[in-house]
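Hello, quick one for you while I still have it in my head. No rush at all, and the record is pasted right below.
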Amino acid sequence: MSLKPPIKTLSKDHPSLIIITCEKGKEEQALIEFLDCVYHADLNVKVEKTSFPGVLIATSSIEPRSLLRVLRSYNVKNIKRAIPVDKLVPADLDHVLQAALELCVKQLKPPSTFAVKCERRGRAFRSSLEVEVLVGEELRRKLGCKVDLKRPDYLVCIEVVDGHAGVTLLSKDEYSHLKVA
């Protein structure tokens, strides 16, 4: 299964997308754990495995950051990271750049610093580093903000799964809480 089935379910009833990671081979336990934690908050939440070991996709009718706050209120052991997706685009550089720019233009102002982190699953891009450098350079050039790879004010997360890229802008407080377990 790839990312395509959950994308088809994105609608008014399921506007939120969250990428969940876990240890390889623990997908079923992580799926059940996620549902156990958030089902009371959203009876319509759906979670599906992807074709990539250790990667799940959740759709929800609740804003993804709110759903993550619910998840973090539990002591989980199988879920490693939960990444909210602000924009879902085809996994090509033009779409990813446009999505990142749209997300950053309102919040990233000098002297803010940022970093770009790409997790690539599939063959949509040659390398994660290539995406990070190209997106980072374009954002730096267009917004005038500096790149800080150690302690950025903002993190642009690009999660590539097959032919789709989830692009998210996270503040320092938000990205410090990406790791759930």
Summary: The chain is about 30% helix and 30% strand.
